[in-house]
């Protein structure tokens, strides 16, 4: 199922995104390589979702270029993206996964077995027949992760996947994300949650009002922020 070419490194070179007179992202240069999860962090409206959409190839920059493994083509490649509120098909949990597998080119004869494996891997093996839309928020997020992982992405972009989950559900989702990272999937994840940054992140991309303020190791960001904005954000002060 995997293509031979790599989408890594994912690089933004002097990238801006504008809409009319509004600058959403302002001249960002950034290289994301393989390894531990990269976290995109910043206040509301700082451009995290827009950056993830650019990284997926869902948006084209207004200026600059985005490259995947040195290539500018923005086809679906080896990437998957998961939004905060996943959209489930009006079918069973299993059918949602099977649909993802079909899209990924999984042979029909292998789909039932792979579906069960993926459901088991996110703790939903017993809920295969449950209509997906009747699952709890945390279960739906786990199902969405399994559906995204069905495509065996090289890069998995996650937009605040635990934002509306309680601590137990958050922990479950974090474990799935870590397992994916350990098995070689590059995670690029937007989050507001500094505890989550400490638990999961390798490096941090810190945005304020569409500008890249810091791109550093997570420990450095949390313990030795180099800019006043990052220091204020880490302290929990309001950053505009
Ligand atoms: N198509 C668009 N047209 C105009 N402005 C937009 C568009 N998309 C996003 N914006 C604006 O760009 C800014 C960044 O939005 P974005 O959703 O990327 O930020 P975010 O950091 O993900 O925010 P949040 O943390 O609230 O989800 C916001 O002020 C938003 O209103």
From TrEMBL:
Keywords: ATP-binding, Nucleotide-binding, Transport. It comes from the Bacteria. Pfam families: ABC_tran. Residues 10-234 form the ABC transporter domain. PROSITE patterns: ABC_TRANSPORTER_1, ABC_TRANSPORTER_2. GO terms for molecular function: ATP binding. SMART domains: AAA. SUPFAM superfamilies: P-loop containing nucleoside triphosphate hydrolases (SSF52540). Gene3D superfamilies: P-loop containing nucleotide triphosphate hydrolases. InterPro entries: AAA+_ATPase (IPR003593), ABC_SmlMolc_Importer (IPR050093), ABC_transporter-like_ATP-bd (IPR003439), ABC_transporter-like_CS (IPR017871), P-loop_NTPase (IPR027417). Belongs to the ABC transporter superfamily. This is ATP-binding cassette domain-containing protein. It comes from Aquamicrobium soli. The lineage of its organism: Bacteria, Pseudomonadati, Pseudomonadota, Alphaproteobacteria, Hyphomicrobiales.
């Amino acid at each position: 199922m995997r293509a031979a070419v790599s989408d890594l490194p994912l690089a933004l070179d002097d990238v801006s995104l504008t809409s009319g007179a509004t600058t959403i992202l302002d001249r960002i240069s950034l290289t994301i390589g393989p390894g531990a999860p990269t976290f995109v962090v910043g206040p509301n409206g700082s451009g995290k979702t827009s950056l993830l959409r650019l990284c997926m190839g869902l948006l084209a920059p207004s200026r600059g270029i985005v490259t995947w493994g040195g290539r500018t083509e923005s086809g679906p490649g080896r990437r998957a993206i998961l939004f905060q509120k996943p959209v489930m098909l009006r079918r069973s949990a299993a059918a949602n996964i099977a649909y993802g597998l079909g899209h990924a080119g999984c042979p029909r004869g292998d789909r039932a077995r792979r579906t069960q494996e993926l459901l088991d891997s996110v703790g939903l093996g017993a809920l295969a027949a449950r209509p997906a839309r009747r699952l709890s928020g945390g279960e739906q997020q786990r199902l969405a992760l399994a559906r995204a992982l069905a495509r065996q992405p090289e890069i998995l972009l996650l937009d605040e996947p635990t934002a509306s989950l309680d601590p137990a559900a958050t922990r479950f989702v974090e474990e799935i994300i870590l397992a994916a990272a350990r098995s070689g999937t590059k995670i690029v994840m937007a989050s507001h949650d500094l505890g989550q940054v400490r638990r999961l992140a390798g490096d941090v991309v810190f945005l304020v009002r569409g500008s890249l303020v810091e791109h550093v190791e997570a420990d450095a960001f949390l313990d030795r922020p180099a800019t006043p904005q990052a220091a204020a954000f880490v302290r929990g002060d309001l950053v505009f």
